[in-house]
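Cont'd.
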Amino acid sequence: EAQVTQNPRYLITVTGKKLTVTCSQNMNHEYMSWYRQDPGLGLRQIYYSMNVEVTDKGDVPEGYKVSRKEKRNFPLILESPSPNQTSLYFCASSLRDRENYGYTFGSGTRLTVV
Amino acid sequence: KQEVTQIPAALSVPEGENLVLNCSFTDSAIYNLQWFRQDPGKGLTSLLLIQSSQREQTSGRLNASLDKSSGRSTLYIAASQPGDSATYLCAVRQVDSNYQLIWGAGTKLIIKP
């Protein structure tokens, strides 16, 4: 089944403890992206990647890191999480250079930083 | 800067009614528009994708239309059911935007049995 898989689904952590949220897709998509969703603010893009070893900042990159060492994986790293990073996170993927292709989203990761 | 607006923000209707959700955007330079469904605290499920050259797409009881020149899209749900209760989001893929999706705030739909 074609899908984007995020792990974990739920995570509670303490301020300052480094964490990684994994994202993997099995559709051979070049493009991958991370969004966060907050009440009243909607979905905002954190980082995106056009292909392996190519990443760039979205609208709200502060406090996050990403890497794209393999085409299928795009982990989101929070080196020193803070309570304002408590949010619902989504990973998405799509084909590049196919403007009329849609996006596939993962099931989300609900992160709470205390 | 592209802005996407969804009206109404919330809608409650009795089961069985046909209903229309609206999505408007300010810049018509888009590649496509995608409608998603989100259940509370859950993931995003893609419902329909309309390419910029298309006028409408249909999937089961759902029909989405696109009028790019006026910056509008509608999602029509026929014979609504309680299981349709969710938040519906529209998102546009802007030309020259590095593939970023621009999102509406969503319409929260409640179908009463």
